[in-house]
Design goal:
CATH architecture of the largest domain: 2-Layer Sandwich
Shape: globular
Strand content: 35-45%
CATH class of the largest domain: Alpha Beta
Order of helices and strands: EHEEHEEEEHEEEHEEEHEEHHEHEEEE
CATH topology of the largest domain: Pseudouridine synthase
Oligomer: single chain
Number of domains: 3
Helix content: 10-25%
Distance between the termini: 10 Å
Length: about 300
Amino acid sequence: MNGIIALWKERGMTSHDCVFKLRKILKMKKIGHTGTLDPGVEGVLPICIGQATRIAEFLTDAGKTYEAVVSIGRTTTTEDAEGETVLEDATPKSFTRAEIVAALKSLTGEIQQTPPMFSAVKVNGKKLYQYARAGQTVERPTRTVTIYELELLSTEDVFDGEEVTFSIRIKCSKGTYIRTLAVQIGEALGYPAHMQELVRTSSGTFTKEHCLTLAEIAEKVEAADTSFILPVEYALSHYPYLEIPDELRKQIFNGQPLPIHPLLEENEKIVFGVEGKAFAIYKVHPEKQGMMKLDKMFPEL
Protein backbone atom coordinates (compact mmCIF):
# COMPACT_ATOMS: atom_id res chain seq x y z
CA MET A 1 0.00 0.00 0.00
CA ASN A 2 1.33 3.39 -1.06
CA GLY A 3 -0.50 6.68 -0.56
CA ILE A 4 -1.79 9.28 1.87
CA ILE A 5 -4.29 8.82 4.68
CA ALA A 6 -6.11 11.95 5.81
CA LEU A 7 -6.40 11.28 9.53
CA TRP A 8 -8.52 13.31 11.93
CA LYS A 9 -6.29 13.35 15.01
CA GLU A 10 -8.35 13.38 18.16
CA ARG A 11 -7.47 15.31 21.32
CA GLY A 12 -5.35 13.53 23.89
CA MET A 13 -3.11 11.76 21.38
CA THR A 14 0.35 12.65 20.12
CA SER A 15 1.14 12.43 16.42
CA HIS A 16 3.46 9.52 17.28
CA ASP A 17 0.55 7.74 19.01
CA CYS A 18 -1.39 7.97 15.75
CA VAL A 19 1.45 6.46 13.72
CA PHE A 20 1.88 3.66 16.29
CA LYS A 21 -1.82 2.76 16.16
CA LEU A 22 -1.95 2.91 12.35
CA ARG A 23 0.98 0.52 12.11
CA LYS A 24 -1.08 -1.97 14.09
CA ILE A 25 -4.27 -1.36 12.10
CA LEU A 26 -2.59 -1.57 8.69
CA LYS A 27 -0.01 -4.18 9.74
CA MET A 28 2.83 -2.26 8.10
CA LYS A 29 5.86 -0.38 9.41
CA LYS A 30 6.56 2.23 6.74
CA ILE A 31 4.29 5.00 8.02
CA GLY A 32 5.09 8.61 8.84
CA HIS A 33 3.16 11.73 9.83
CA THR A 34 3.60 15.11 8.17
CA GLY A 35 3.99 17.51 11.06
CA THR A 36 3.41 17.30 14.78
CA LEU A 37 0.10 18.27 16.35
CA ASP A 38 0.16 18.83 20.11
CA PRO A 39 -1.84 16.31 22.21
CA GLY A 40 -4.40 18.98 23.14
CA VAL A 41 -5.08 19.83 19.49
CA GLU A 42 -7.40 17.96 17.15
CA GLY A 43 -7.52 18.15 13.40
CA VAL A 44 -6.17 17.21 10.00
CA LEU A 45 -3.00 15.12 10.09
CA PRO A 46 -1.98 13.64 6.72
CA ILE A 47 -0.18 10.31 7.12
CA CYS A 48 2.13 8.89 4.44
CA ILE A 49 2.30 5.11 4.01
CA GLY A 50 4.63 2.89 2.01
CA GLN A 51 6.67 4.60 -0.69
CA ALA A 52 4.59 7.76 -0.23
CA THR A 53 6.71 8.53 2.85
CA ARG A 54 9.16 9.98 0.31
CA ILE A 55 6.87 12.96 -0.26
CA ALA A 56 6.22 13.64 3.45
CA GLU A 57 8.40 16.76 3.28
CA PHE A 58 6.10 18.35 0.69
CA LEU A 59 3.12 17.90 3.01
CA THR A 60 5.07 19.11 6.03
CA ASP A 61 6.04 22.27 4.10
CA ALA A 62 2.49 22.96 2.91
CA GLY A 63 0.39 25.77 4.39
CA LYS A 64 -2.04 25.06 7.22
CA THR A 65 -5.41 26.44 8.34
CA TYR A 66 -6.47 26.56 11.98
CA GLU A 67 -9.40 27.76 14.05
CA ALA A 68 -8.46 28.93 17.53
CA VAL A 69 -9.97 30.49 20.61
CA VAL A 70 -7.85 33.30 22.04
CA SER A 71 -8.20 34.19 25.73
CA ILE A 72 -7.20 37.68 26.85
CA GLY A 73 -6.27 38.17 30.50
CA ARG A 74 -3.74 35.45 31.37
CA THR A 75 -0.44 34.05 30.06
CA THR A 76 0.75 30.51 30.81
CA THR A 77 4.00 28.58 30.80
CA THR A 78 2.94 26.66 27.67
CA GLU A 79 1.08 29.58 26.03
CA ASP A 80 -2.07 27.42 25.98
CA ALA A 81 -4.71 26.36 28.50
CA GLU A 82 -2.64 23.39 29.72
CA GLY A 83 0.09 25.49 31.36
CA GLU A 84 0.43 27.16 34.72
CA THR A 85 -0.43 30.85 35.00
CA VAL A 86 2.55 33.17 34.59
CA LEU A 87 0.83 36.56 34.51
CA GLU A 88 -2.81 37.47 35.10
CA ASP A 89 -4.79 40.67 34.66
CA ALA A 90 -8.26 40.30 36.17
CA THR A 91 -9.35 43.89 35.56
CA PRO A 92 -12.52 44.45 33.50
CA LYS A 93 -11.73 44.73 29.80
CA SER A 94 -13.64 46.00 26.80
CA PHE A 95 -12.65 45.75 23.13
CA THR A 96 -14.59 46.85 20.08
CA ARG A 97 -14.69 44.60 17.06
CA ALA A 98 -12.64 47.19 15.18
CA GLU A 99 -9.89 47.08 17.84
CA ILE A 100 -9.55 43.30 17.60
CA VAL A 101 -9.62 43.35 13.80
CA ALA A 102 -6.87 46.00 13.84
CA ALA A 103 -4.75 43.82 16.14
CA LEU A 104 -5.20 40.85 13.79
CA LYS A 105 -4.30 42.99 10.78
CA SER A 106 -1.08 44.10 12.46
CA LEU A 107 -0.04 40.43 12.67
CA THR A 108 -0.90 39.51 9.07
CA GLY A 109 1.96 38.95 6.63
CA GLU A 110 5.53 38.10 7.60
CA ILE A 111 6.02 38.21 11.36
CA GLN A 112 8.71 37.16 13.82
CA GLN A 113 8.06 34.43 16.37
CA THR A 114 10.11 32.95 19.19
CA PRO A 115 9.12 29.31 19.78
CA PRO A 116 7.68 28.60 23.25
CA MET A 117 9.85 26.72 25.75
CA PHE A 118 7.29 23.91 25.71
CA SER A 119 7.87 22.96 22.05
CA ALA A 120 9.78 20.37 20.03
CA VAL A 121 12.25 22.85 18.51
CA LYS A 122 15.81 21.68 19.11
CA VAL A 123 18.52 23.87 20.64
CA ASN A 124 21.99 22.33 20.95
CA GLY A 125 20.58 18.92 20.03
CA LYS A 126 17.94 18.96 22.77
CA LYS A 127 14.23 19.69 22.48
CA LEU A 128 13.03 22.85 24.19
CA TYR A 129 10.38 21.04 26.22
CA GLN A 130 13.16 18.91 27.75
CA TYR A 131 14.83 22.06 29.06
CA ALA A 132 11.45 23.38 30.24
CA ARG A 133 10.62 20.20 32.16
CA ALA A 134 13.99 20.44 33.87
CA GLY A 135 13.16 24.01 34.91
CA GLN A 136 15.73 25.49 32.55
CA THR A 137 15.35 28.40 30.14
CA VAL A 138 17.60 28.71 27.09
CA GLU A 139 17.95 31.26 24.33
CA ARG A 140 15.59 30.39 21.51
CA PRO A 141 16.02 31.19 17.82
CA THR A 142 13.57 33.71 16.39
CA ARG A 143 11.98 32.62 13.11
CA THR A 144 10.10 34.38 10.34
CA VAL A 145 6.69 32.91 9.49
CA THR A 146 3.91 34.09 7.20
CA ILE A 147 0.31 34.67 8.26
CA TYR A 148 -1.63 34.66 4.99
CA GLU A 149 -5.03 35.36 6.54
CA LEU A 150 -6.14 36.18 10.08
CA GLU A 151 -9.91 36.43 10.41
CA LEU A 152 -12.13 37.18 13.41
CA LEU A 153 -14.87 34.52 13.50
CA SER A 154 -16.74 35.73 16.59
CA THR A 155 -19.62 38.02 15.64
CA GLU A 156 -19.93 40.36 18.64
CA ASP A 157 -19.52 44.11 18.19
CA VAL A 158 -18.09 44.54 21.71
CA PHE A 159 -16.11 42.04 23.80
CA ASP A 160 -16.38 42.61 27.58
CA GLY A 161 -15.22 40.82 30.71
CA GLU A 162 -12.33 40.09 33.05
CA GLU A 163 -11.30 37.31 30.65
CA VAL A 164 -12.24 38.03 27.03
CA THR A 165 -12.34 35.21 24.49
CA PHE A 166 -12.89 35.22 20.73
CA SER A 167 -12.46 32.80 17.84
CA ILE A 168 -10.15 33.33 14.87
CA ARG A 169 -9.22 31.53 11.67
CA ILE A 170 -5.56 31.43 10.65
CA LYS A 171 -4.05 30.51 7.28
CA CYS A 172 -0.30 30.32 7.74
CA SER A 173 3.03 28.94 6.61
CA LYS A 174 4.77 25.95 8.13
CA GLY A 175 6.51 26.58 11.44
CA THR A 176 3.85 28.96 12.78
CA TYR A 177 3.05 28.56 16.48
CA ILE A 178 -0.59 29.46 17.01
CA ARG A 179 -0.01 29.49 20.78
CA THR A 180 2.62 32.16 20.30
CA LEU A 181 0.36 34.03 17.88
CA ALA A 182 -2.34 34.15 20.59
CA VAL A 183 0.18 35.74 22.97
CA GLN A 184 1.16 38.24 20.26
CA ILE A 185 -2.50 39.17 19.72
CA GLY A 186 -2.77 39.84 23.44
CA GLU A 187 0.34 42.02 23.29
CA ALA A 188 -1.18 43.98 20.41
CA LEU A 189 -4.26 44.59 22.59
CA GLY A 190 -2.14 45.44 25.63
CA TYR A 191 -2.89 42.42 27.83
CA PRO A 192 -1.53 38.96 28.68
CA ALA A 193 -3.13 36.18 26.62
CA HIS A 194 -3.01 32.49 25.76
CA MET A 195 -4.54 30.06 23.29
CA GLN A 196 -7.58 28.39 24.83
CA GLU A 197 -8.50 25.91 22.06
CA LEU A 198 -7.12 24.89 18.67
CA VAL A 199 -8.31 22.82 15.70
CA ARG A 200 -6.37 22.30 12.47
CA THR A 201 -8.95 22.38 9.68
CA SER A 202 -6.62 21.87 6.71
CA SER A 203 -3.09 20.84 5.83
CA GLY A 204 -2.03 21.46 2.25
CA THR A 205 -4.75 20.05 0.00
CA PHE A 206 -6.31 17.97 2.79
CA THR A 207 -9.35 19.22 4.72
CA LYS A 208 -11.64 17.85 7.42
CA GLU A 209 -13.96 16.49 4.73
CA HIS A 210 -11.23 14.06 3.60
CA CYS A 211 -10.50 12.78 7.11
CA LEU A 212 -11.31 9.63 9.02
CA THR A 213 -10.68 8.85 12.69
CA LEU A 214 -8.56 5.88 13.72
CA ALA A 215 -11.72 3.94 14.61
CA GLU A 216 -13.23 4.61 11.17
CA ILE A 217 -10.00 3.52 9.46
CA ALA A 218 -9.96 0.29 11.48
CA GLU A 219 -13.54 -0.45 10.39
CA LYS A 220 -12.65 0.04 6.72
CA VAL A 221 -9.56 -2.15 6.96
CA GLU A 222 -11.59 -4.89 8.62
CA ALA A 223 -14.01 -4.69 5.68
CA ALA A 224 -11.07 -4.88 3.22
CA ASP A 225 -11.91 -1.35 2.00
CA THR A 226 -8.78 0.65 1.12
CA SER A 227 -10.58 3.44 -0.76
CA PHE A 228 -9.60 5.87 2.00
CA ILE A 229 -5.93 5.71 0.90
CA LEU A 230 -5.50 8.69 -1.39
CA PRO A 231 -2.99 8.71 -4.27
CA VAL A 232 0.28 10.60 -4.04
CA GLU A 233 -0.89 12.84 -6.88
CA TYR A 234 -3.59 14.30 -4.65
CA ALA A 235 -0.99 15.55 -2.21
CA LEU A 236 0.93 17.18 -5.07
CA SER A 237 -2.11 18.68 -6.79
CA HIS A 238 -1.18 22.25 -5.82
CA TYR A 239 1.76 21.96 -8.26
CA PRO A 240 1.23 21.98 -12.05
CA TYR A 241 1.28 18.51 -13.62
CA LEU A 242 2.77 17.69 -17.04
CA GLU A 243 2.93 14.42 -18.90
CA ILE A 244 6.56 13.63 -19.71
CA PRO A 245 7.05 14.53 -23.40
CA ASP A 246 8.80 11.95 -25.57
CA GLU A 247 11.69 14.29 -26.32
CA LEU A 248 12.46 14.71 -22.60
CA ARG A 249 11.78 11.16 -21.45
CA LYS A 250 15.43 10.06 -21.32
CA GLN A 251 16.63 13.19 -19.51
CA ILE A 252 13.84 13.11 -16.91
CA PHE A 253 14.22 9.38 -16.33
CA ASN A 254 17.90 10.02 -15.66
CA GLY A 255 17.17 13.02 -13.44
CA GLN A 256 19.14 15.46 -15.59
CA PRO A 257 18.83 19.28 -15.40
CA LEU A 258 16.54 20.76 -18.06
CA PRO A 259 15.84 24.18 -19.59
CA ILE A 260 13.46 25.97 -17.27
CA HIS A 261 9.74 25.52 -17.93
CA PRO A 262 7.54 28.67 -18.12
CA LEU A 263 5.30 27.27 -15.37
CA LEU A 264 8.13 27.74 -12.88
CA GLU A 265 7.77 31.50 -13.25
CA GLU A 266 4.67 31.38 -11.04
CA ASN A 267 5.06 28.04 -9.25
CA GLU A 268 7.64 26.76 -6.81
CA LYS A 269 7.74 23.29 -8.41
CA ILE A 270 6.24 21.29 -11.29
CA VAL A 271 5.39 17.59 -11.46
CA PHE A 272 6.22 15.39 -14.43
CA GLY A 273 4.39 12.10 -14.75
CA VAL A 274 3.36 9.17 -16.88
CA GLU A 275 -0.35 8.56 -17.56
CA GLY A 276 -1.34 10.74 -14.63
CA LYS A 277 1.11 9.14 -12.18
CA ALA A 278 3.72 11.42 -10.64
CA PHE A 279 7.28 10.47 -11.55
CA ALA A 280 9.53 13.47 -10.87
CA ILE A 281 9.37 16.93 -9.33
CA TYR A 282 11.48 19.76 -10.76
CA LYS A 283 12.32 23.19 -9.36
CA VAL A 284 14.36 26.20 -10.46
CA HIS A 285 18.07 25.41 -10.53
CA PRO A 286 19.71 27.46 -7.74
CA GLU A 287 23.03 27.82 -9.57
CA LYS A 288 22.40 27.50 -13.31
CA GLN A 289 20.39 30.40 -14.74
CA GLY A 290 17.65 29.38 -17.16
CA MET A 291 17.70 25.79 -15.94
CA MET A 292 15.63 23.60 -13.65
CA LYS A 293 16.79 20.63 -11.62
CA LEU A 294 15.34 17.42 -10.24
CA ASP A 295 13.97 17.84 -6.71
CA LYS A 296 12.52 14.39 -6.09
CA MET A 297 11.95 11.22 -8.12
CA PHE A 298 9.72 8.30 -7.21
CA PRO A 299 9.59 5.77 -10.08
CA GLU A 300 8.36 3.03 -7.72
CA LEU A 301 5.05 4.87 -7.28
